[in-house]
Design brief:
- With about 110 residues, the chain is an all-alpha fold.
- The chain has one domain.
- It has 5 helices and no strands.
- Helix 3 packs across helix 4.
Length: about 110
């Protein structure tokens, strides 16, 4: 059964925690972002990117921007980008370019 994931190749994982309790523990701006997200994010995944961005000194707005960029990258990988999602150049944020680890990417050394 596909439930709310629809036709996707995204991996499914078993839950090990209570999802509503984890959701309620998230910061308010992050909960608002999740309520409007295109993909069905787990609270743990969203919190991981949020915490990584905040630990790098980004503001809450920039942390939400990092989440939007991560979501866009996932949608682009799926090749199923809804029409209401801005194009990838939306993610041209200086902090995200300077430190791709915020989005969970590995750095491949300095650009040539």
């Amino acid at each position: 059964m596909n439930r709310n994931l629809g036709m996707t190749r995204l991996r499914r994982k078993r839950r090990t925690t209570e999802p509503m309790r984890a959701y309620d523990a998230l910061p308010e701006p992050l909960r608002r972002w999740l309520a409007e997200a295109v993909l069905p994010w787990s609270p743990a995944s969203a919190r991981r990117i949020w915490n990584r961005a905040c630990s790098k000194g980004l503001s809450p707005e920039d942390a939400l921007h990092a989440l939007s960029c991560a979501e866009q990258k996932t949608l682009a990988r799926e090749r199923h980008v809804p029409s209401h999602v801005p194009p990838l150049h939306f993610c041209e944020h200086s902090a995200l370019k300077a430190d791709p680890s915020i989005l969970g990417e590995r750095s491949h050394g300095p650009a040539p």
